[in-house]
Each structure stands twice: as C-alpha cells, then as structure tokens.
Amino acid sequence: MVFSVAMSFFPNSGFHLEKVSSHRDRNSKKIMLSFDDGPHPQYSEKILDVLREHKISAVFFIIGKHVPGNEQILHRMIREGHVIANHSHTHSVLWDLWPTARMSEDIEKCSEIIHSVTGLRPAWFRPPYGVINPMVAKAVLARGMAAVTWSFRSFDTNTKEENRLVEKTIKGVRGGDILLFHDSLAVTASGLGKIIVSLQKKGFEFAGPEDFLRKKAYADC
Ligand SMILES: [Zn+2]
Fold first, then answer.
1. What angle do CA 46, 214, 200 make, to 5 degrees?
2. What's the pLDDT band for 15 if we cut at 50, 70, 90?
C-alpha cells in the first residue's frame, strides 16, 4: 500500500477505522486537491471551469443540505471526472458533540441525496471541521466509510486576499499533501488558477483522487 493509512482501534468493537490524510510516500511529487462545503451556486462552477482548463480532477466533499437546487453541479462534477464525497448533511457547528447514532443518520442522509442525484454512493467521509473523536470514528465506521482528511490546510476561509492565499499555498505545500480548500469562496475561485500553475512549475503533479489514495471512491451498489 502506498497511501497513508492510520488505523484507530476500538477494543470493544474489534473494528478499525481507516483514516487517510496524505500520500504515504512523502518523496512523491503527487498532490491532491480537495474542496469542502459545496455545492455552491456561485463558486463551485467557477472552480470547475479552472479545473477543466488545467485538466485536473479533484474531490468535492459536499454538504447534503446544499444539494437541492444545485443538482446540475453534481452532474457536472461527475461528468468532468471529479469525485463526490460526503461532508455530512447539516455540517452543524455542534456536529462532533452529537451522539454517534445522530451523526450516523446525518452521514446517511448526505449519502442518500448524493445517491439519488448521481446513482453513486460515496465511500469517503470528511467530518465537519475535520474533528475525529471516538463518537465520530464509530459513526463513520458504522457507515462502512473511510475518513479522508488533509495534510495541507489553505485557510482560505480566513483569507480575504487572493495573493496571500496563493503565496501561502505555494510556500506551504509538500509532496504527498492532500490540500484543503472550499468551493464556497470567491477568493478560492479566483486564486485557484495561479495556485495550480505555480505548483506545477515547482514540479508538483495533481493526481486524480482515486489514483492518489489507491481507493475506490464509491461503494458497490
Ligand atoms: Zn466543512
């Protein structure tokens, strides 16, 4: 196995949660783009335009409640070779404090809506705010999914200035990183092209999500 897999063990259940946050080979020049919190009616398509221009596929961790009215964005993501994954239905600020059963239902609701629109059932989950406590781990395990987080956080949610976002990203990215951005932000949509070109100039290669993680993105159903 070439991807990074950290196993969390639950003595009572005997099951393991598979958690992936980067490529195992840190000497690799491969990196992977991930976008959270869409679909967004204004910015997701701008990001898709940039990705299409540069022939790069990425993974979109979407929020279930953002899907109604934006179904065509999901269709476009699939048509253009991207992966759609689960980022919960509600993305509640209290999400990681919920009981496991409620989290599990919320994950399922997001998977259901993705399935109803695309016919695909996501196998990857990214918890809201990236928190994986024992309750979250049990909920993800109960749904039979893998937890996919990140190793480079762009902080695009806190950055208003495009140039700052671009510079920080170019300086900070290392080989094997999973990059976290948000397709719900103007600054990300406008800075992404420069980020891609600059990282490619530094020799980085944007790998497709399933290639990068060596994992299937969807359950068989
Ligand atoms: Zn999020």
1. 45
2. low
